[in-house]
Amino acid sequence: MRLYIIRHADPDYPNNTITRTGHLEAQALAPRMQREGLHRIYSSPLGRARDTAKYSAQALNLPVEIEEWTAELSDLRSAEAPFAGMMAWDFHGEVIRGGETMPMHHNWHELPHLSVPHIREIFERVKRNSDEFLARHGYVREGGLYKIENRNREKIAVFCHGGFGLTWLAHLLEIPLPLMWSGFFLPPSSVTTILLDERSENFAVPRCIGLGDVSHLYAADLPVQPSGIKANFY
Predict the structure, then answer these.
(1) Which of 74, 93, 163, 170 has an alpha carbon within 20 to 30 A of 124's alpha carbon?
(2) Contact 118/75 with Cβ under 8 angstroms?
(3) Is the pLDDT reported for residue 232 higher than 90?
(4) Which residues contact 53 (CB under 8 A, 6 or more apart)?
(5) What is the value of pTM for the model shown?
């Protein structure tokens, strides 16, 4: 199975939709998704994801199936100084990586500003929902592997969000969560491709074969929008 994790196009957050530029991005994305030959399209319930997905759905004559659990993780906003009001995935990389040891699976939640219980609880929720989603498509998680219950050859797109996408990828790829947040960026309308890599008869392992791809924007002569970058972008 191939899983396409697609961030919504350039957002109009106040109106829960996408900007005029975002519509151009989503329109440019649709022919690419058509060439990929998607079998199913899922979307976050939020308007900016649904409004991005609709162009690909129309091109492929597919319904958009809503997955509630893929909504943006808006409850990951910090209430603590100096990051009060900031989403956890926007915390400065120098804070995440500036300590004496790198955050790993066993200790990332002990970092300053990440030690509040709700962050870990939300990540556990994403993990549970992800495992249930993949089980529905034939892959049942056992430890760090996915047992192949049904050898799925579908191509599936999930239109979702930047913070959610990075959080989901941390689980799928077994990358410590704060390193995923601070080390990667998913541009608006970008496509991240995960292959359920089947090296044996029994198990598959998620493998990223393309991250944050925006080739459809270059093909349409559209710029990459910096939504989510908090400092220099040029």
Answers:
(1) 93
(2) yes
(3) no
(4) 6, 26, 41, 43, 64, 157, 159
(5) 0.96
